[in-house]
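Researcher: Batch entry, complex prediction.
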Amino acid sequence: MRKIHVPLQENSYDVIIEPGLINHIDDYIDKSREIVIISDDNIPKTYINTIKSFLSNCLCLYVPHGEKSKSMEMANSLVNSLIHNNITRGCLIVALGGGVVGDLAGFVASIYMRGVDYIQIPTTLLSQIDSSVGGKVGVNTETMKNAIGSFKQPKLVLIDSTTLQTLDERQINNGIAEMIKYGLIASKTLFEDLYSLNIFDDIDKYIYQCVQIKKDIVVQDVFDNGIRQILNYGHTIGHAIEQYSKYELLHGEAISIGMMSMSIGTIFEKEIKKVLTKYNLPTSHDYDKEALYRYITTDKKANKNNLNIIMVDKVGKGYIKPIIISQIKERL
Ligand code: GLY
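Model: Structure tokens for the complex:
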């Protein structure tokens, strides 16, 4: 078992990384509490059944899988279900699933009765190494990803890497893209391991390294006004591509193209292309550049004329660079 403490004063919590922890979840969750599991219709029933066998009185709410469920309408529907089931302020929401479920359930926890406790049990690689940690929760609108949201830290994050066994290769590589990002912005060794080793020989070690990097950054800038922005390497272009493709491209695939674009002209351009290709991640696109630019100008990360982009000149060291927004066009 590996444990990472996220020290955020009264909002501090632990991230537990332990293969098979779902099989003794009652060691981590107080089953005397009023528990609501929020999950999606794609989650393997065995996880639900195992968890329910420990938390027999819990209420389970399911949303359709996929990015479309990350909406105000779905948040509203979940809130209505909580009210309908007389769920009180003392409840504990358990987000069981990937990033969509984590962001949506966390958002509901942040608004229901002005905020209730929640924990994250992320079941995809992407959510285990990124979205479950750091407290960014929210939903999309038609035109903007994560347009509505809050910062609400979970009480606990439980990562069981055996859940990765049911993911297909595309979903795994979706998470690997974020691992590559961590390597580029913060750890040359991680980047090199991703290229030369089979990280699945010891996936928990790599999940731990990524969560450690994220934690170190989040605790310096929980509200994303400064250093936390380096976690957005490749995301300005990536988010535009994700939205333009109507989420046909997965998040990791879109940021893969974004990271490649940001690496053009660097000394590691060839290396990043090789690593992304090793994991079947795309490195180019033929989307309409003007349309992508329009998405970028409405991105949360932009203001009227300026944009902070994240650059990496040397693998393992990301930094923030303010630019005039139109300068991003040369990278599209
Ligand atoms: N996923 C980027 C962040 O949490 O800031």
